Amino acid sequence: MTVVQLNHLGGALAERPETANAVPYRDAGFLLRLLSPLDGTDVAAVRSLYGEVSGVLGPLVRGRSLNFSFGGGDRTAGFHEPETAKRLAGLVSQFDPAGLFGGPYEGV
User: This protein's superkingdom (predicted)?
Assistant: First the structure.
């Protein structure tokens, strides 16, 4: 079973604040979420399904939302626009060089 949720974006979320932050893809028109329970489900099968959806929608995809990504940290591409990712990496190296505040996603 997979739950599909499609949200229309825009409005205040689309406005970039004066101070830089880590909210990515403010110009996106929609947010698509796929949520699959993994209780007794083959993770590889779920990833395969998500891969099929990604293959169909690939040309329309701007990136991924870290807030709605669960699981292991092996798929970090697309969480932030390149400029933001570089800025965040600099902040991590400056303020958390030992990696004490790291989460499940390496380098994010």
Answer: Bacteria
